[in-house]
């Protein structure tokens, strides 16, 4: 995943180092000293990196950047080491914060992981907002969320200790959320089955119990991956507390200050134990974490990070809630639960227009179940409906949450992949094809039906006249897949 990043930093040396690290990860980077120096005709950034100095002037400058409608992008604040600026930056409107040594030559992987996480969250939020606009085009008024949301519920997964109790008390006092402690990953999995949580804090320092099985639940990264895969916690904010792998984490004690308890004054955010800790944080992001902080971070920083993640989740939840209700009647296929053709035709036009204006890649996948009539003839139409539902489930599982997925005809389906190049689109198509052909589906009682799917892939081109040309080329690729024997993926060669 690439993206456009604007680096705002008055230090030319640091600005160059940040730009170099990001460009090496295939981001498009523009560097300026101040926001007003940005090229007026330049494309809108997907992320802004901005230098930050704690204090009133620094907070006002950062707030202005975060609120600038010309940028309209999440902000990752960068401060000097030992400045304890995380809480101030997050409270001033930044979505995330790093101290300068992490962002420089030593450990750029953590910078890149945070940048990718922020851009991914931005893409999902933009897609939800586009879907609300499409709902209005359908004549629907999205449901309004309650003005006063219920108090957030937080699950803290950390070994039982005095420090864990102190952390729980500090988070409750600073944020007002309800915190439930879980002594292990195994206990946490049982708790999320029984209760709903808005956020989960996972501390490093676990070893899997001998002979207990489920070894992937024995460390923080494994716990995060398991939580991210579960439907109950897939949309929850997951915050990783990075510490020494294989030992107990060093959790902050109770004093509510902006200085780490028992830590040296100069602290590198996320790297107190060097590159190994940074690698653990990167692994946590790759497993599905939405944030990471050093385990001995100040309670004010942990509270600020938690509040920032809860605000983002609340916004996303409100957008999702606004798409329920009437949307299910007017825009959802009742058999499969996917979007219907009416919604697809309106929304794909909006997505193509957005991609053309920003220059972001976009791809279309069209699907047709092979010899679907044979399923109906052999098992009946009710069995055919079961096969369609099973295919829709495997299709939805094989693409990303922000992708537009629709049933466009009887046994015809389509997916629009935003910010996806042709290689990524082909990989997604092959993933779905393999999932469908890999095992039969239950269709009636104990009866099983083997189904396969042919898939056509096309990418948006500058000369395409809206979605019609894109979908025509994807359909042509689908017809080629059918001619060549079915159960295969073909890409537009025009």
TrEMBL record:
Gene Ontology terms describing biological process: cell adhesion involved in single-species biofilm formation; negative regulation of bacterial-type flagellum-dependent cell motility
GO CC terms of this entry: plasma membrane
Top-tier EC class: transferase
Reactions this protein catalyses: 2 GTP = 3',3'-c-di-GMP + 2 diphosphate
Record SUPFAM superfamilies: CheY-like, Nucleotide cyclase
GO molecular function: diguanylate cyclase activity
Domain GGDEF: 360-494
Enzyme nomenclature, EC number: 2.7.7.65
NCBIfam families assigned: GGDEF
Protein name in the entry: diguanylate cyclase
């Amino acid at each position: 995943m690439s993206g456009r990043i604007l680096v705002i930093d008055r230090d030319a040396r640091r600005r160059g180092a940040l730009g170099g690290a990001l460009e090496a990860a295939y981001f498009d980077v523009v560097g300026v000293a101040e926001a007003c120096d940005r090229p007026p005709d330049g494309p809108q950034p997907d992320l802004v990196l901005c230098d930050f100095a704690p204090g009133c002037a620094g907070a006002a400058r950062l707030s202005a950047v975060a609120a600038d409608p010309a940028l309209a992008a999440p902000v990752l604040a960068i401060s000097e080491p030992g400045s304890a600026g995380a809480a101030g930056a997050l409270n001033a409107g930044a979505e995330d914060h790093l101290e300068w040594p992490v962002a420089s030559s030593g450990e750029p992987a953590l910078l890149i992981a945070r940048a990718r996480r922020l851009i991914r969250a931005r893409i999902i939020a933009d897609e939800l907002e586009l879907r609300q606009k499409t709902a209005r085009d359908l004549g629907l008024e999205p449901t309004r969320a309650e003005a006063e949301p219920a108090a957030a519920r937080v699950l803290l997964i950390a070994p039982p200790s005095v420090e864990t109790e102190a952390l729980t008390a500090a988070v409750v006092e600073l944020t007002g959320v309800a915190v439930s402690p879980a002594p292990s990953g195994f206990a946490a999995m049982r708790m999320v089955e029984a209760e709903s949580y808005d956020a989960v804090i996972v501390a490093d320092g676990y070893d899997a119990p001998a002979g207990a099985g489920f070894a992937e639940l024995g460390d923080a990264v494994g716990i995060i991956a398991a939580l991210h895969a579960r439907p109950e916690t897939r949309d929850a904010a997951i915050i990783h507390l990075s510490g020494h792998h294989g030992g107990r984490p060093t959790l902050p004690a109770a004093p509510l200050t902006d200085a780490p308890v028992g830590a040296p004054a100069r602290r590198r955010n996320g790297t107190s134990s060097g590159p190994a800790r940074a690698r653990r944080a990167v692994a946590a992001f790759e497993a599905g974490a939405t944030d990471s902080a050093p385990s001995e971070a100040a309670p004010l920083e942990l509270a600020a990070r938690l509040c920032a993640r809860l605000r983002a989740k609340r916004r996303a939840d409100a957008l999702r809630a606004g798409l329920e209700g009437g949307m299910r009647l007017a825009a959802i296929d009742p058999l499969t639960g996917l979007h219907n053709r009416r919604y697809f035709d309106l929304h794909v036009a909006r997505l193509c227009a957005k991609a053309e204006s920003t220059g972001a890649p976009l791809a279309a996948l069209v699907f047709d179940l092979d010899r679907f009539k044979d399923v109906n003839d052999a098992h009946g139409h009710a069995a055919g409906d079961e096969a369609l539902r099973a295919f829709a489930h495997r299709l939805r599982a094989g693409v990303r949450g922000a992708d537009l997925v629709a049933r466009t005809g009887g046994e015809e389906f389509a997916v629009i992949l935003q910010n996806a190049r042709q290689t990524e689109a082909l990989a997604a198509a092959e993933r779905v094809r393999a999932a469908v052909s890999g095992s039969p589906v239950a269709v009636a009682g104990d009866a099983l039906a083997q189904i396969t799917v042919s898939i056509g892939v096309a990418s948006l081109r500058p000369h395409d006249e809206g979605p019609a040309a894109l979908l025509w080329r994807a359909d042509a690729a689908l017809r080629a897949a059918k001619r060549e024997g079915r159960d295969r993926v073909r890409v537009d060669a025009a």
